[in-house]
Each structure stands twice: as C-alpha cells, then as structure tokens.
Amino acid sequence: MPLGVNAPGGGGVPFEEVTRPLAPGSTLVLCTDGLVERPGTDIGARIDVLTHTVDAALKGAHTDPDTLDRAAERLIRTLIADTAVHDDDVTLLMIGVPAPDGTGADG
Which top-rank group of organisms is this from (predicted)? Predict the structure, then answer.
C-alpha cells in the first residue's frame, strides 16, 4: 500500500501493522501513490510495473547507495513519463540490506 493512504483524508484503507526482519540481500521499497497513480490507469498494474522494474534493476546487484540511486532513477523514468509536467508529489525510499558477501539477494 502506498505511504500516506491511511493519513487523514487518505481513504482509510484497512491495514495490519506487523514487524518483520529484512533478510540480508533484500531491498525495502516505500513510495507514495504519486509514483504509481495516474488517472485512467489501474493502480495495481502500475504497482506491478514498479515491482518488476525494481526486480530488474536490482537483480544480483549490490545494495550500496549508488546502486539504489540508479534503481530509483530507473523507477522514476519508468513510472513518470514527463517529470516536468507531473503534478503529484512523489516520495520514494529504498533501503538495501547487504548480504554477507555485500551483494543483493540474488548475487
């Protein structure tokens, strides 16, 4: 679920708060709906594009800041056709947990 959806005025989507450890080599991606929501499109399909893009950008890669920055840039280029005319706020946070050998989950 995009960040802020349950904020006041955010639609009140039911959710359950849970705590889970992040496995070594995993990447946590958090974003607001401004990254994936477009009038006339299915938000579920746009979230699928986001997950496939993250998977392709990070498959076998190190979870270092430079790699995460490049993956974030790729996500924004893929999901926002023209940033100059994009009229919604976007927040994207990517947190990489290094594997013991310093690579990503599949490295």
Answer: Bacteria
DSSP state of 102: S
Quick one: tokens of 74? 């790729």
User: pLDDT (tens digit, 9 = 90+) per residue, 53-95?
Assistant: 999 999 888 888 999 999 999 999 999 988 888 888 899 999 9
CB-CB neighbours of 41 under 10 Å: 11
Listed in sequence order, the residues at least 6 apart from 91 whose beta carbon sits closer than 8 Å to its beta carbon are 3, 30, 31, 32, 34, 35
Sign of CA dihedral 76, 77, 78, 83: positive
Of how many residues is the chain composed? 107
List all residues 6 or more positions away from 46 whose beta carbon is below 8 Å from its beta carbon. 36, 37, 38, 79
**Both tokens assigned to 8:** 């006041």
Q: Model pTM?
A: 0.75
- Residue 89 CA to residue 77 CA, distance in Å, equals 15
SS3 80: coil
